[in-house]
């Protein structure tokens, strides 16, 4: 309707104010149908005062939300927590809200236009800042719970919950980082979500939030520990992306400040991630020294979680690259047992990867394939891009060893398509790259260059689910 007067570009720029743009409709229609604002306003007028109040307050949610979140964030000052369910049900009956099922349970959602109308009313009440703080506090609490429960049998539930809550977690992060006194909360929230950035395929987004968080100056007493955690998590993400220079800078700052403030946990994490950096840059003796020291520090302070187990897996990888396969197997079997005792599935997948590497190195491709299939299934369930692509890379080598060079080349094409969403392929590491080069050389020899390239291109065209199923 507006294209007679405006270009598509002008329409796009004006869509931020949908109520101003979408006005002046069919003059033969009822007055309440002629503009978007009066159409929504008609529904608003039909609501009771408590319904209008809840509508306005629910506008602070940036995506789907559950009942518990609505009760916490929106109650008080004229709306008791025990009344939220009844008022919310009335808004559902009037289609102000919609109800949806998700892997994280029953959720509620507002259409963006309905939400924008409520947000205008919330601003008019003068209560918007308080509601945004309550929204922030709820999601900081949710992230705290999810980080603790990641190391438990509820790992799948946690992954689904954070995925469903991501729009609201982003909104909470924005609020923390925009508020003058919210820097320490932003650093805390960005760091607490490490398992999602690293374990659920969100490396680039995690890097975005963490870099913003560590640039902010927080109150020393309130934010020191949160800043240290944000620094080592930022370094972890950058290492996995193959970006070693900013990773090293963050780790050096973290270690220096952790020692100054006598924070043994932050020292251990900084040392652990420095060992991980040495591993992916092929300095294996230094990696082994640092990782053993970090694991000793973890034991001294009683730390046991998925990060600690990953440190042991990384130590096993360093031992395997140096030729000590029995020690690598011992370390990863221990991790596997701890994971089974605690219901941990994510770190277990990386232990299976190292065990598969050892099985292939010892000439047992059948055992290696069995372990890698298990590893890949778990990584795919969590959407862990790094775990998935490492498993596919090694599966390609196992496949060529079993005599199917064409399928091995297809799998290399699959891996080639996956690496850009992670970072630098195989971290730029000669040791991690060795299986890829062995596979490529064997496949090219058996297929010829032209057929090899054709198979790689076929693999690169496969979607993620199709590739994993294959």
From TrEMBL:
InterPro entries named in the record: HTH_77, TPR-like_helical_dom_sf
Transmembrane spans: none
Domain of life (superkingdom): Bacteria
Winged helix-turn-helix domain sequence ranges: 51-122
Organism per entry: Streptomyces coelicoflavus
Signal sequence residues: none
Entry protein name: Regulator
Pfam families with a match to the protein in the record: HTH_77
């Amino acid at each position: 309707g507006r294209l007679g007067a405006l270009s598509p570009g002008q329409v796009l720029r004006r869509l931020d104010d949908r109520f101003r743009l979408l006005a002046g409709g069919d003059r033969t229609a009822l007055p309440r149908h002629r503009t978007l604002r009066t159409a929504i306003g008609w529904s608003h007028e039909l609501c009771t005062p408590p319904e209008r109040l809840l509508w306005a307050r629910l506008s602070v949610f940036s995506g789907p939300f559950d009942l518990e979140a609505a009760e916490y964030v929106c109650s008080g000052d004229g709306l008791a927590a025990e009344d939220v369910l009844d008022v919310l049900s009335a808004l559902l009956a009037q289609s102000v809200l919609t109800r949806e099922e998700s892997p994280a349970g029953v959720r509620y959602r507002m259409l963006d236009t309905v939400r924008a109308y409520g947000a205008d009313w919330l601003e008019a009440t003068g209560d918007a800042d308080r509601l945004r703080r309550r929204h922030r506090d709820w999601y900081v609490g949710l992230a705290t719970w999810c980080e603790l429960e990641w190391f438990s049998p509820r790992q799948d539930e946690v992954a689904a919950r954070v995925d469903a809550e991501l729009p609201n977690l982003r909104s909470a992060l924005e609020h923390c980082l925009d508020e003058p006194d919210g820097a320490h909360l932003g650093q805390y929230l960005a760091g607490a979500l490490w398992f999602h950035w690293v374990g659920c395929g969100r490396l680039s987004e995690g890097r975005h939030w963490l870099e913003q968080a560590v640039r902010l100056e927080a109150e020393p007493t309130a934010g020191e520990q949160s800043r240290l955690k944000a620094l080592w998590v930022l370094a972890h993400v950058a290492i996995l992306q193959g970006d070693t220079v900013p990773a090293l800078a963050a780790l050096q700052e973290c270690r220096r400040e952790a020692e100054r403030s006598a924070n043994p946990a932050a020292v251990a994490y900084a040392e652990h991630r420095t060992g991980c950096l040495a591993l992916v840059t092929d300095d294996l003796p230094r990696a082994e020294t640092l990782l053993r020291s970090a694991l000793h520090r973890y034991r001294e302070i009683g730390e046991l979680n998925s990060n600690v187990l990953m440190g042991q897996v990384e130590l096993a990888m360093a031992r395997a690259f140096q030729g000590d396969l029995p020690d690598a197997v011992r370390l990863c079997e221990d991790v596997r047992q701890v994971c089974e005792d605690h219901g941990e599935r994510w770190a277990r997948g990386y232990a299976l990867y190292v065990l598969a590497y050892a099985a292939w190195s010892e000439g047992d491709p059948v055992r290696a394939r069995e372990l890698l299939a298990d590893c890949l299934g778990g990584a795919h369930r969590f959407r862990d891009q790094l775990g998935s692509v490492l498993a596919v890379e090694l599966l390609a080598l196992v496949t060529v060893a079993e005599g199917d060079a064409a399928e091995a080349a297809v799998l290399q094409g699959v891996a080639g398509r996956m690496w850009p969403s992670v970072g630098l392929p195989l971290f730029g590491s000669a040791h991690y790259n060795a299986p890829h080069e062995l596979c490529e050389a064997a496949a090219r020899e058996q297929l010829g260059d032209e057929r090899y390239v054709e198979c790689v291109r076929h693999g690169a065209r496969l979607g993620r689910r199709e590739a994993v199923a294959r």
